[in-house]
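In this supplementary section we document a worked example of the pipeline. Step one takes a protein sequence of length 97 as its only input; no multiple sequence alignment statistics are reported here. Step two produces a three-dimensional model, which step three serialises into structure tokens for compact storage. The input and output of this example are shown verbatim.
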Amino acid sequence: MQWSQFGREVEDSLISNEYKDGNHASYYGGKDNPYECVKVIEAWGQQKNWNYQDGFYLGTVLKYINRCGLKDGNSKEQDLQKCINYIKMYIDELKGE
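The serialised model returned by step three reads:
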């Protein structure tokens, strides 16, 4: 385990394997889809001039909305709860808590 910039644990294997070797997971839209999650996040981030904090929290929320109930082992409820958790964390960051 390593610690992220915001002091939350991040499991290395989850991050490194998600797009390992150019893998574009189908539950995020897939490589050939112009609306693949990572493409939308990048476009919105550029259009709205997101900073790192915006990109991290809002991008993560968009990722969970995009894959809602599509990833094996994650129900719609779990993915939506993750959205809520990241929105709450972002609001706390914006409030300076």
